[in-house]
Specification:
Helix content is 47%, strand content 15%. It has 4 helices and 4 strands, in the order E-E-H-E-E-H-H-H. The strands form 2 sheets. The protein has a two-stranded antiparallel ribbon.
């Protein structure tokens, strides 16, 4: 396959890649490294095409908060690391449980508010 790389005035780089008969494609190494891909990617269908980007690890959003809390509790060194690992493992199951509870609540119809009560009556 020939190297079809073009760059526009705004610095955007474009490369033509092939798609296998199994609908697989290979991300060029340069792009893979530059964007920080790991073993998963997010694929988003947009009106103008397909966007493929590294999967953002939502767990990392909690890492700073967990560390700040543990440090404020006086943990440091090996003890801090051990507590951080313990707390980090608990984040995903806790979020999953919250989402399940929210789904159950919505499906049950509990907490439903009539539209006129929510937005006021038209009269």
């Amino acid at each position: 396959m020939q190297q079809n790389i073009t760059r526009n005035d705004m610095g955007t780089e474009r490369k033509i890649i092939s798609i296998s008969t199994k609908r697989q494609l290979t991300i060029p190494q340069k792009y893979y490294d530059a964007l920080g891909f790991d073993n998963e990617a997010e694929c988003i269908l947009r009106e103008e095409g397909l966007l493929i980007r590294p999967l953002q690890n939502s767990d990392s959003k909690f890492s700073e908060q967990i560390l700040a809390d543990l440090i404020s509790q006086g943990f440091e060194g090996a003890e801090l690391l051990a507590k951080f690992k313990e707390y980090s493992k608990a984040v995903r199951p806790a979020v999953r449980k919250m989402l399940e509870e929210a789904d159950t609540f919505v499906q049950s119809g509990a907490g439903k508010i009539p539209r006129d009560q929510l937005f006021g009556s038209e009269a």
